[in-house]
């Protein structure tokens, strides 16, 4: 894992930066995976149960995917850049040192360099797994008995590509009566599209094939679900001549 951080840091990256509002979980002194409050680089700090009060999804004419926004503020970004910007101090010592050696400062706003942050997170995950194994103690019982009852549950976790929000409403039998899931791809979609608009304008001097490749990189920087199933991009270029 440490070698992977060093390897990715040696790639050639476009010299670009974006002014994202980063959104991620922040745990109690730990790098976030499964729990924490929802925080942003511009002052948001809420519990998962407050998500619907501050975030909204909407349909847009040009896409079948829902687009998420912070109410009255606009697009935001989840994922490795956001987790790192908001929680770098909570990385393990070996991961923090690897990040510094890879040339990362306290914040990375270049989406092309997100692969370095992902590698740092893999290193942290390996280090954390070893810690959990060393500290493991067998519990008294393997599960906790529960009695079904009506209620609503909220949670947010971190997937590799970004924050994932869940809300479930249960009836008196404990069956799901209503559910809402907001995956990181729909949350990042507006920022991905804005990346394309900004970067394409700066790269119009590239040949068509090189421009297409750079656009594909721009999308895959954020590891959206669509990139797993779509391995090419059709790009129609009109240079006005």
Please summarize the sheet with the most strands: 3 strands, antiparallel
Beta content? 15-25%
Rg from C-alpha positions? Answer: 20 Å
Give the overall silhouette: globular
Number of domains as seen in the coordinates: 3
Structural class: alpha+beta
H/I helix tally: 8
Our measurement of the CA-to-CA distance between the termini, rounded to an integer number of angstroms, reads 49 Å
- Mean pLDDT value: 92
Number of DSSP E strands: 8
Percent range of helical residues: 25-40%
Question: Overview of this structure, please?
Answer:
The chain is of the alpha+beta class. The chain is built from 8 helices and 8 strands. It folds into 3 domains: 2-134, no CATH class; 151-183, no CATH class; 185-229, no CATH class. The strands form 3 sheets. The protein has a 3-stranded antiparallel beta sheet, with helices on one face. Strand 7 and strand 8 (176-182) form a beta hairpin. The longest helix has 22 residues, at 114-135.
Produce the secondary structure layout:
Blueprint: H1 2-9, E1 23-26, E2 37-40, E3 45-46, H2 51-54, E4 55-58, E5 67-70, H3 80-87, H4 93-101, H5 114-135, E6 151-159, E7 162-170, E8 176-182, H6 184-202, H7 208-220, H8 226-229
Antiparallel strand pairs: 1-2, 2-3, 4-5, 6-7, 7-8
Helix pairs in contact: 1-5, 4-5, 6-7
Fill in the keyword field for this structure.
single chain, 241 residues, alpha+beta, 3 domains, three-stranded antiparallel β-sheet, 8 strands
């Amino acid at each position: 894992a440490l070698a992977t951080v060093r390897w990715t840091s040696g790639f050639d990256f476009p010299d670009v930066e974006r002014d994202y509002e980063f959104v991620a979980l922040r745990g109690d002194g730990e790098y976030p995976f499964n729990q924490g409050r929802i925080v942003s680089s511009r002052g948001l700090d809420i519990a998962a149960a407050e998500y619907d009060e501050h975030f909204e999804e909407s349909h847009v004419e040009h896409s079948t995917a829902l687009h998420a926004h912070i109410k009255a503020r606009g697009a935001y970004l989840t994922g490795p850049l956001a987790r790192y910007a908001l929680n770098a101090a909570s990385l393990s010592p070996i991961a923090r040192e690897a990040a510094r050696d890879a040339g990362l400062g306290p914040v990375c706003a270049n989406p092309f360099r997100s692969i370095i942050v992902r590698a740092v997170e893999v290193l942290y995950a390996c280090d954390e797994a070893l810690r959990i194994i060393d500290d493991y103690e067998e519990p008294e019982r393997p599960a906790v008995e529960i009695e079904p009852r009506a209620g609503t549950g909220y949670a947010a976790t971190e997937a590799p590509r970004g924050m994932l929000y869940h809300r479930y409403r249960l009836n008196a039998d404990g069956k799901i009566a209503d559910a809402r899931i907001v995956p990181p791809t729909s949350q990042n979609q507006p920022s991905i599209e804005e990346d394309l608009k900004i970067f394409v304008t700066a790269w119009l001097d590239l040949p068509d094939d090189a421009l297409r490749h750079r656009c594909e990189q721009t999308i895959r920087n954020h590891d959206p679900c669509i990139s797993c199933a779509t391995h090419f991009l059709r790009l129609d270029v009109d240079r006005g001549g």
